[in-house]
Design goal:
Layout (H helix, E strand, L loop, with lengths): L2 H12 L3 E4 L2 E4 H9 L4 H9 L2 E3 L1 H9 L5 E7 L23 E7 L1 E10 H7 L3 H28 L5 H9 L1 E3 L12 H10 L6 E6 L1 H9 L3 E8 L2 E10 L2 E5 L5 E9 L12 E3 L5 E3 L12 E16 L3 E5 L6 E6 L4 E14 L2 E3 L11 H4 L5 E3 L1 E2 L12 E6 L2
Parallel strand pairs: 3-16, 7-22, 8-11
Antiparallel strand pairs: 1-2, 4-5, 5-21, 6-18, 8-15, 9-10, 10-11, 12-15, 13-14, 15-22, 16-18, 17-18, 19-20
């Protein structure tokens, strides 16, 4: 092999669009293009509803910052006030200007790996790359939806004065009411409480399947339809008061357990005993001892509440930040196995909320850190004022179903 031919081979192999897989060249760019064409139902549904709003300033900021994991972007407020009477006598009031705010934004990175055995390919005669790409697309869709819901949980857990005010005004809790399940008027009341005359910008509801079933039984949801070749067909998509419904059973419910000190003086083998720690958390006693029975508690009641989140147009600023190597292939020849590695970085920022990075260990927040209210607050202005909570198009309804 002459030197010129060797040099051309080396340049081809070093091209950023080409990787080496099992002694063959794997076109990463082509795979990425194929992967991006696989339908992603849930995130696409959020994007199409207008809830996720692209914000190029986030991407530009995090790409330009050293480390590119956290940054501050400016937000421009709205002109406020009232003009004075123009009557030839009344003087101008104090000149008005735009207030500016600072919003903390964070990059969220996730990665995972997948494999396919040679024997599976030999038995099915299917291209493993197509199968994995088709399935991981939905996998990542679900994973990022989980991240988004943890963020929403986090902003309702803010403990600052303004954060508690937001949570109170944007929460409609009907669990203590006589009619404690969602009814026809529940959504309108909740959205009016949260955003007043801006309530019509809400576009999408995320709810537990229990709540969706309740609404369906009450005939309060509408099945969207489409026409194909002149025939009207049902879509697997529903709306509630015109808001698209996404059913999501994780974190859309909370179980409230009540405990009381046991009155037993001897161990009862049919009972489960609990102990309470200094933080007020209860844990099961695995091996109860009669000598410690005075410190044991019993579970007296367990109540489940359901949380429905309603999101408005532009409620979440969103950017796909990308990764240096989003897709990578490796070969484990000893085990006759091929591995696909994937890496993604995105940013989801509720409009009007600021990420503080106050309780974050590494350069990418975990789901638990995103759900931690200590990491969030209402966006604060340069003059000390806070972003108007009525412009934050996120609300929640707490019900019994």
């Amino acid at each position: 092999m002459n030197n010129k031919f060797k040099l051309n081979i080396q340049r081809f192999a070093e091209s950023e669009d080409v990787g080496i897989f099992n002694d063959k060249y794997f076109n990463k760019k082509a795979f990425g293009a194929y992967y991006d064409t696989i339908p992603q139902e849930r995130l696409n549904l959020l994007i199409k509803s207008g809830v996720l709003q692209p914000n190029r300033r986030i991407k530009n900021l995090l790409k330009s910052q050293t480390g590119s994991e956290y940054g501050i972007i400016p937000m421009i407020g709205r002109l406020k006030g009232k003009p004075v009477n123009y009557d030839g006598v009344t003087k101008y009031d104090k000149a008005k200007t735009l207030n500016t705010y600072k919003q903390g934004v964070v990059a969220i990175g996730r990665k995972d790996k997948f494999f396919e055995d040679d024997f599976t390919f030999d038995m099915t005669n299917k291209d493993f790359m197509n199968d994995i790409a088709a399935q991981t697309s939905d996998y990542w869709d679900t994973a990022w939806e989980d991240v988004l819901m943890q963020i929403i949980k986090g902003i309702f857990s803010i403990t600052t004065k303004k954060g508690l005010e937001f949570a109170n005004k944007h929460t409609y809790d009907i669990t203590s009411e006589t009619n404690n399940t969602i009814s026809e008027e529940t959504q309108n009341i909740a959205l009016q409480r949260a955003c007043g005359d801006r309530r019509r910008i809400f576009k999408l509801s995320v709810m537990n399947s229990m709540v969706a079933s309740n609404l369906e039984n009450k005939k309060l949801i509408t099945n969207l339809k489409f026409t194909e070749n002149g025939i009207e067909r049902d879509l697997n998509m529903y709306t509630w008061n015109g808001k698209i419904i996404v059913e999501y059973d994780d974190i859309t419910y909370e179980t409230i357990d009540t405990y009381a000190k046991t009155t037993d003086t001897a161990l009862n083998n049919t009972k489960t005993y609990f102990v309470k720690d200094n933080d007020g958390n209860y844990s099961e006693v695995e091996e109860p001892k009669v000598a410690d029975i005075g410190n044991y508690y019993e579970l007296t009641s367990s109540v489940t509440n359901y949380i429905t989140y309603v999101l408005g147009k532009g409620a979440i600023d969103y950017e796909d930040l990308g990764a240096k190597v989003p897709h990578e292939i490796d070969r484990d020849a000893d085990n006759d196995r091929n591995y696909l590695y994937q890496r993604q970085r995105k940013s989801f920022m509720p409009h009007g909320m600021s990420y503080l990075m106050a309780n974050q260990v590494t350069d990418s927040p975990t789901d638990e850190e995103l759900a931690d209210g200590a990491n969030w607050d209402i966006v604060k202005g340069t003059d000390g004022s806070y972003y108007n909570h009525r412009e934050i198009a996120i609300a929640r309804i707490i019900s019994k179903g």
